[in-house]
Structures are given as C-alpha cells and as structure tokens.
Amino acid sequence: MEASIGQRLRTLIEEKGYTPYFVSQKTGISESTLSRILNNASKKPNIKNSEVLAQFFNVSLEWLLNGTGDVNSFESSAAPFANHRVTVRQVTFDNYMEVKYLPVIAQAGYLNGYYDIKEHIDELDTMLVPKEFEKGNYLVVEIAGDSMNDGTTRAICDGDRLLIKELDKTFWKDKLHFRQNLFVIMSNEGIVCKQIIEHNTETHEIRCHSWNENYPDYTINLNDVYKLFYVKKIVERRIRF
User: Which CATH number fits the domain 5-91, given the four candidates 3.40.50.1010, 2.40.50.140, 3.40.50.410, 1.10.260.40?
Assistant: First the structure.
C-alpha cells in the first residue's frame, strides 16, 4: 500500500526527533491543520502549507505530496529553514493525544441550543496536546475576551486555548476546590472561564470571580449548569508584542 503524505511527514518528524508542536511553532502551521495532515484527514493539503513543510524539512515538494522524485531535490538555497539548527529532546507520538477543539464560533452555537457537543463531536477539529495519563473527558476551548486577564503572568488572555477536563456531576455536590482550580462553566448564561471563590452546597450556588477587576463577581446556580470542567493547562498562546 502506497504511503500517504501523512505517513511521509510523520517519518520526517520522527527522524528529526521533533514534535508536532515544535513543527507548528517553527512553520506557523496550526496544530489542528498539522494533525489533519498527519492523520490523513486532509488528503490534499493547502499547497502553501505543503511548500512550507518541504522547505522546513529540506525535501522535494513532489516527494512530499506524491512520494515520487528525489526526496532531497529541494533546490532553493534560500529556503527560510535551510540553516535552522536546534537542539531538542526526542519525544515520541506516544506522548501526545488528540483532543477535540471547540472554537469560539462553535461555542456560540452550542449556547444557542443548536450545537450539541455529543451530536457534533465528529465535526470538531482536533489538536495534538501533551498526553494526560489521568482518564477522563478532555476538550480544548478557545478564550474570548479579557475578563481573566489581570496583566500578570497568570493571566488567561483572549485567543488562549485551554485543555480542560470534565468534572463528573457526582462531584458537584461536594465543596469545589475553588482555590486550586480555574473552571470552564457551560450554562444557559454562556460558556465562561472563571475562578469559583464560593460554593454553597445547600443552595447549590457558586460565586464566579474574574481576575480582571473591571468585571464584578456574580453567582450562578449549578442546576442551570450543563457541564463543568476544570482547567488543566494552557496548550496554545499567541505571541503578543
């Protein structure tokens, strides 16, 4: 069976000892796009992305796309990555996992009642993120707005992508560990990322706090919450000048 572009690209990455995240950061190709190529979900990648990848690995574009020609026949001596040297520690694909990614536009649809995550899960893009060895339901969400941006190193900024893990409803009745975690709350009020600073287990109310002092605290009843996640880590952040 003839190898696919995804298999050829995967071989190049493994031979160099790179990670998909590293390739994404150095080429400017998003992790979700790179993941689709690697997993053959994108049978005909964008030609611009293909050229960038061929330049980065210093291989023939024809070989990368079709598996034909001389693998080392890339002729441009001015290739932007030709003299790029890095020292990296090899990380295998076993250290990564694919997680569904819920962008801002899909979040709005979910809140309007016509976008159910379970029914449309196959329509979501995926991202490669460092593997979490704790089992559970993971999701990557994109942050919109500045309510959690207090200008410090802990800030959660507009455009950040967070890896979140669902908290089973059986744990909602217990006092939430609001001092140790940030939460992503999906309710009929919206999808928000907040710190929970109070939890009344009798009335089932939680007080949501923003790190940006321009946004006041407010309460929400857990009976109005569809899903509750806690934030594991920031998995992608744009460079800001």
Answer: 1.10.260.40
